[in-house]
Design a protein that fits this description.
With 299 residues, this protein is mostly helical. It is built from 13 helices and three strands, in the order H-H-H-H-H-H-H-E-E-H-H-H-H-E-H-H.
Length: 299
Amino acid sequence: MGKPLLWYNGRLFLLLLFMPAVLGWGDEGHYALCKLAEAYLSEDALFAVKKLLPASAEGDLASLCTWADDIKRQPDYRWSAALHFADTPDYKCNYEYCRDCHDFYGNKDQCVTGAIYNYTTQLRSTYAGKNSVLKYNLTEALLFLSHFVGDAHQPLHLGFIGDFGGNTMKLHWYDNQTNLHKVWDDMIIGSAMGRFYNSDLSTMIQAILANMKDVWSNDVATWQKCAHNITACTERYASESVSLACNFAYTNVTAGGTLGDEYFLSRLPIVEKRLAQGGVRLAATLNSIFVPHTRIAQA
């Protein structure tokens, strides 16, 4: 398997038993983001991605974009739990890698931005021919990277430490009891599908793609670019999410309260735009990694 940033000892399991589940976008969100990415993949990147996917995926990256959530509680993958987020000190509405990228025990580099860098490096170094042998599991690296780019674009994965990114902030979404994190993972997307997209995720994806080509057409090129030609500008993704968490996710929300139309209709455009940005940036990252090298595909 791909070399993790750090293997955790058994104490993490005990800690996780008492923590709320830390998810990324829900299944629909991760699937949608990766479908959007597929639409922007270059021919070379699409070829390489399909070669790395297991046969069960039938060439569809989006079908496995929740894999990192599915396996993180399995004994062999508990080390990956801390890589899904990078919570910030309460009411600190900025992201600082040295301050915020650590695991439950304070071990550095164990967070979503560190993970994106790690798996981007694994893929890029191998495809650039810098490794004479294949020392990484590149399929896992691809699946982790695709998932974590999604997580970095969910604002509450850069939420406050005090409530575990909204996980412990209990409230009602209309008549349903839930928590603020799950509202951003699932509820906004689910309500949008039911109200505007005939409960059809593919219709929602097509609507976002249409906005990317029309409403956000001038922005898409900007979303893809990273300063200094780096492959993935993780601190930019994180800084955007922290700002959105402070200014929108937490704003006008109280524990035990009820969120309804006012919150839903004003936050839905943010959710859809973050899915679009994450999809474009995942595609740009994979396009940069999978330049025309056939060595790994042949292997």
